Amino acid sequence: ELGMRPSKSAEDLTDGSYDDVLNAAQLQKLLYLLESTEDPVIIERALITLGNNAAFSVNQAIIRELGGIPIVGNKINHSNQSIKEKALNALNNLSVNVENQIKIKIYINQVCEDVFSGPLNSAVQLAGLRLLTNMTVTNDHQHMLHNYITDLFQVLLTGNGNTKVDSSFLSLYDSHVAKEILLRVLTLFQNINNCLKIEGHLAVQPTFTEGSLFFLLHGEECAQKIKALVDHHDAEVKEKVLTIIPKI
Fold first, then answer.
1. Contact in structure between 111 and 92 (CB atoms under 8 Å)
2. Which segments of the chain have a pLDDT < 70?
3. pLDDT of residue 239
4. Which residue from 31, 40, 101, 187 has the least number of CB within 10 angstroms?
5. Distance of CA 195 to CAs 30, 51, 126, 143, 202, Å?
6. Run of H or E including 225
7. Quick one: which H or E segment has residue 81?
8. How far apart are CA 5 and CA 36, in angstroms?
């Protein structure tokens, strides 16, 4: 319990007209409101406001320290699909912070169940996939997805629209992209390769549906882009590329 009585101002913070980034006291009011109300309209608005504020790194830590992650996380079990989606979006923004991931990982199984049992291309599925992507960019939590790899492939290979990947995704592998992003997308490539290896898909030449993430990442254009990064000015990027090149 956050031990703070909600005031009218807590609801005012969710009405969409309040543009400022919330401070710790306001975030605490918002979390209390989220924890104490049963009104789905207020819950959804509070989650949107929290999610927007969780896009700022300082607030990612504050929300965790205020005990906000389980308050948000509990809402992914809500029967209202829109509330579930907004909770996943908020967790997604919070998951950018590595310390937050330690607390968010307890929801991975639930998120996987929702992603793979729900309607294809639904808002909940897309929000869940975004969260799972953030949670598995590094190796820390990938093992938690092992039981869902086949389902994940199914979604990415059969989905249309937003679950498929635009070819502009490959522009993330350009040398001018910020180092942090480059390292993330290179790690993503590495991790997908590892998952394919676990599934045995790399034992034979795999065929992937055009427009899928796998089709892009295992195409010639992506291979050329990654090989070009061997001349990158940053040693960490270069080192990562050298570990990947033998696999492409």
1. no
2. 1-9, 16-19, 120-121, 137-169, 195-196, 198-214, 248
3. 92
4. 40
5. 39, 30, 20, 10, 9
6. helix 220-228
7. helix 81-94
8. 9
